Amino acid sequence: MTGPEGTLSILIVDDEEPARLLLREMLDAMPDVRVAGEAANGLEAVGLAAREAPDVVLLDVQMPRMDGFETLGLLDPRIAVVFVTAFDEHALRAFEVNAVDYLLKPFPAARLSEALGRARARVGRVRDTDAAALSAAARPAGTYATRIVVRDGPRVDVLPVSQVQYARGQADYVELVAGGRSHLKQQTLQSLEVSLDPAQFVRIHRSFLVNLAFLKRIEPWGADSRQAVMADGVELPISRAGLTRLNEVLDGRG
Amino acid sequence: MHPLLTHPRWLLAYLGAWTLLSVLPAAALGPWDTGHGVQAAAIAVLPTLAFALAVLPTWYALRAFPLDRSGLLRLATFHGIAAAVGGALWLGLAEAAARAAGLVPGWEDAVQRLAGRRLELAATGAVFWFLVAAFHYLLAAMEAVREAQARAAVLDVRAREAALAGLKAQVHPHFLFNSLNTISSMVVRDPAGARQTCIQLADFLRQSLRTPDARPIPLSEELALARAYLGVEAVRLGPRLAVRESVEPGCEAVPVLPLVLQPLVENAIRHGIARIPEGGTLALDAWRDGGALWLRVTNPVDPGSPAAAGGGMGLRTLRDRLGAMYPRGAVLDARRTGDTFQVAVRLPLDDGGTDA
User: Fold this and answer.
1) Alpha-carbon gap, residue B343 to A253, rounded angstroms
2) What predicted TM-score, i.e. pTM, was given to this entire model?
3) Which domains does chain B have, with CATH numbers?
4) Closest residue of chain A to B275, computed from CA coordinates
5) Tens-digit pLDDT profile for residues B47-73
6) CB of B196 less than 8 A from some CB of A
């Protein structure tokens, strides 16, 4: 990390090689900037950013497996992010997650220089991004999340939502159980719930959100309560309100 | 609704024609001296006009007996009975008119004028029935022509809309701007490559922006379009995109629906290969089998990606366009098997492909 006067270190993230070469060519011609590295996808970018601690990440939006918005959610909030994309349908979402700037391909070097000027003015400040806004920005309006990215130190896991068996809320963390493994993500259970398809995921309890595909049966528990038995045998409590929601979704399926 | 009732002027013309036709029964009612002429006309005209109005509902009955599809015996039976009923109806109306005329002072003998002429009058009524039937068949034929024209116009508009939608889906903004960015990146480090990519992009755009008509083009032109597209994408994606093309000799001249292949190729890249970090191979096959041309595009998909049900917007548009162009049934089959996505299109060789 550097100050407003020093050399700005920059990480280039784009899955297309010609696009990376163009950015490098433009940056090499600019004073006071240094290319800290190049990544061809979000996973590489997160690892490289953790190692190199750049001031700025030039982040492509459309990338395989993990797009720019999902990648941004896993970057250190002190890193300034400039989105780079071919089409401006994501501009509003970029604004909502506090990106420094938004470049439309192809752009002149002067436009890149202007974006870096803004980034330089922001160096050292922490990007303030609300987790719910980030989660909403990570997918087009009116659709549900199809995958969840989870970071565990230097390691990033991309979980298809269809493989998530259930989620347990713990204060401002959720524990996601998928494929027999458990992953922690900094997000509230409620913001996770609204990002998922309500016909697939049901909040059966204040602290539990289950994937119906992994629900094996509902059985009585105690005097007048029920519990859910998941495919792997785990038993989860069902609250009164949770049972109502569960019945609504199951009845709705016919 | 009977067409005459929707056009008051046609109805007036219809009744005028019948007034003239009432000369036939009037003649049968002679003699035509000054005393009897007006009386004969009164007894002939009023029943004729009443008959003309009473038979209008046969419009609906005649639809059940179309000339071209009813069979001779059925038609003869129906019209024989109808003519008998028509004759009886006309005679009844004439009787009523004569009785009414008999109430007029000086015309007391009106009913006697029918005596001995009832057979001729009934025959006139039967002839009138045949005129009514002929007239209505003519009307129905005109109506059918008008409907066919309207239907053809609607189909034409739909075909145009589908073609335009196909075009819009075709030149996707992401593709266009990414391609321009690719060219921009090559200008300094690889000027010759930049020029080459520019030319491929121009070729692709020119062919895509042809006037939207649904006239078939040889498969070779569709292949050229797909190759221009793949050429630009190959520069952008670099080693991530490999293409394997296999076109059976003789297929290239077969006329096909324009933009039948390119959307499949674009889908394979946008939803398949471009979403895999390592990329993959796009396979393009074309062959003839019996009375059909088969086109098939196969691509890998990212293992973690959700299965798209029924394909996206592009496939839906193509399905609609195939339905309009090949009335006897083209087939579009899209399926995902594991991590492979495959779309096969079967185009019947003897269907569509004409300007009709």
Assistant:
1) 30
2) 0.63
3) 3-154 (no CATH), 171-348 (3.30.565.10)
4) A64
5) 888 888 888 887 777 777 777 777 888
6) no
